[in-house]
Amino acid sequence: MKAFRFVAWQKPAELHEMPVPEPGPEQVLIKVGGAGVCHSDLHILEVPAGTTSMRLPFTLGHENAGWVEKLGTGVSGFAPGDPVIVYGPWGCGLCMNCRLGMENYCQNPGEIKPGGLGADGGMANYMIVPSTRFLIRLGALDPREAAPITDAALTGYHAIKRSLHLLGPGSTAVVIGAGGIGQMAIQILRALSSATIVIAVDTSVDKLEIAKRMGADEGLLSDDAAVKRIKDMTRGQGAQLVLDLVGVNPTLTMAAQVSRVLGHLTIVGLGGGALPVNFLSPAKECSVAAPYWGSIPELMEVVDLAQAGKIKMVVEHFPLERASDAYHLLHDGKIQGRAVITPND
Questions:
Q1: Can you give the pTM of this predicted structure?
Q2: In this structure, are 185 and 138 located in the same domain?
Q3: Which range marks the domain in which residue 245 is found?
């Protein structure tokens, strides 16, 4: 089979020939339908050696969906051909958080590397999933379309869920970054909350238009005028929820400027910026959090939303041979929603 592999630090990933893996006890072999191209992969490809606990080489792709191909010994509950989505942040399965389904907050990090983030991921014809607890049935959803649910949708869902009690009638939510996660977050806000106003902020006019089609009341170009407009729309109070999906210094500064007393400022983006914090900024008693991914039960809830037609990702498909092109386009800001590699098309 072919696999798109991260083989050397600070070097582009490469397409390699590999044997089809054989599932061991408790493992499942998945025929990959779709593997999402995530911006966090760009950060991983750019880090110097020794700055993470990942060991090279491994196959990229941590947003994965496909069909059960083969079961290892001791596996039950699934059959070959079942369409499934793969939960991404694999934990130890034994600590308190993992037992509660929150493997994204495993208390023994590093014991197991997730697929596409240290272990072999889904940018290959086949991938191994170490346990059925990481598989969720897709029903009628197409794995080629559903792959981004496991990160782009789940990450936004988890980040928003903590703030739902603030988002009643009359409230405002600001989503900074209208790419893949942002587009899903806007739909999730509309599906779950009673927020009166949802504002999208981005540097791309095209992405802002998509955001408005997905439920944003207003799309603002990211500049000082956007801060003034948000303040005007909230009568000078700021937004109950500010969701920064970029995380660079300018967006974090903006997030602090439009934060609200007793509101939430939630940082999801991995841009490496720093939030300016002093007595006057963010707003008084504004809760700041940096959530990570989401839990297994939450992914089940997100799949339910997708099955009900409440959320849908803008997807652009690429064959495995064009995976490198997809990453270049993502780097240049030319992917409007989510690029998805389809290894078996």
A1: 0.95
A2: no
A3: 154-289
